[in-house]
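Folding problem:
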Amino acid sequence: MSDRIESIIEAQIRAARENGEFDDLPGAGKPLPGHSEPYDEQWWLKEFLRREGITGAAMLPPSIQLARQVEQLPDEIRKLPSEQRVRETVAELNRDILDYQLRPTPPFVPVRRLDVEAMVALWREALEARFAAARQPAPEPEPPRERQRRWFRKRSEPPHDA
């Protein structure tokens, strides 16, 4: 029975090959991706994350994600356009921290709520620094160097004395 099934499959493959159904397939004639790399047991997970556009940070436990958000918040706040947006961002993160504190999950990472006013002060400092940088005059460009022209002249030959 298995020989019969195998022969049916082989016949279908042979017919498809003869009809040219395998011609011009994408990647034809190219090596398999990753064939020269060492074997990785989690290749399928890494490929899934890459294909779906998921960062490795999304796979972290909630406590570590919150700790990373708290760590990255000063850089994020410096880029925000308004004080209101800063307050909203900090309040949202504080709500997430409070939810975690009420129902912590392992690994237990101590994460404290943030001081809104301290974050607003940080944003104002960054805003003042941006304004100060914008007020400073741009450095004057250096004047172009004058090229020295070399005039090539024919040298006059000294008179020949006979």
Remarks:
- The two ends are 117 Å apart (CA to CA).
